[in-house]
């Protein structure tokens, strides 16, 4: 039976910006190797696989072209967008996703689609030499959580102009390296902080917009800026915006999405 698949740009309201994710809705269980092959074929930073459960929730798994990951924000946002757009749930219906990071929810709000994710705060860490050499700078702060390193640098300009050595970063024992700085507050700027995210060890040199990285960045900048609502910009070539509200051990993360392709997989 053909499997429906869509490509959806997340954390943007414009096609061909934000972060593209493939979303596949399964009617029956599929082998992990098949999902890995599909993700490699899609060759996007994430491919999401959904399967409805008897209680109305959805199982949700995320795969990069190389590996399965524990948490992904943009593909979850894309999956929620898919289910509502294709009429699998009414717009007022909150979605429950069963994942490797526990139960995640998505709901429609005035801010777009709002996800409820676990906070992933970082603790101060000693930077390995490959991290320092790979970024080619002396950081203001280095922290780490169970997934990634978070590196604060001196300015928004440094974040935007950074050209990492991916071969060196791929040798760092971590999922990814998140580089961030306070936004410069220039004319017209409405952002509190900016970031970029690099994941060469799992086949993604630079991820366009990374929801899971903001599970660390939101509590970090909440403490630094003493703000309970934050507007973030991920300064990749495609770019993307997130509205963040850290609450205790959770992060409410809002954004929008747009479908750019619908089709079917031949299986």
UniProtKB/TrEMBL annotation:
InterPro entries: Phenazine_PhzF-like (IPR003719). The keyword Isomerase applies. Keywords: Isomerase. The keyword Isomerase applies. Pfam families: PhzC-PhzF (PF02567). NCBIfam families: PhzF_family. Belongs to the PhzF family. This is PhzF family phenazine biosynthesis protein. It comes from Paenibacillus mendelii.
């Amino acid at each position: 039976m053909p499997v429906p698949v869509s490509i959806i740009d997340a954390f943007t309201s414009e096609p061909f910006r934000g972060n593209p994710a493939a979303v596949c809705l399964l009617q029956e269980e599929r082998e992990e190797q098949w999902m890995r092959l599909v993700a490699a074929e899609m060759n996007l930073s994430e491919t999401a696989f959904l399967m409805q459960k008897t209680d109305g929730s959805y199982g949700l798994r995320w795969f990069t072209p190389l590996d399965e990951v524990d948490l992904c924000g943009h593909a979850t946002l894309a999956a929620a967008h898919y289910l509502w757009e294709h009429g699998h749930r009414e717009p007022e219906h909150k979605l429950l996703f069963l994942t490797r990071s526990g139960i995640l929810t998505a709901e429609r709000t005035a801010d777009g689609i709002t996800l409820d994710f676990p906070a992933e705060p970082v603790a101060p860490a000693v930077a390995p030499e490959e991290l320092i050499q790979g970024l080619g700078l002396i950081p203001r702060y280095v922290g780490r959580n169970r997934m990634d390193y978070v590196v604060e640098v001196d300015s928004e300009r440094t974040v935007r102009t950074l050209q990492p050595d991916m071969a060196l970063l791929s040798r760092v024992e971590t999922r990814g390296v998140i580089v961030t700085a306070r936004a410069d507050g220039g004319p017209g700027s409405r952002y509190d902080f900016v970031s970029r995210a690099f994941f060469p060890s799992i086949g993604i040199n630079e991820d366009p917009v990374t929801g899971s990285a903001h599970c660390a960045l939101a509590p970090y900048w909440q403490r630094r800026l003493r703000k309970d609502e934050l507007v973030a910009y991920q300064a990749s070539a495609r770019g993307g915006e997130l509205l963040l509200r850290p609450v205790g051990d959770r992060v409410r993360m809002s954004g929008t999405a747009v479908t750019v392709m619908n089709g079917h997989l031949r299986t």
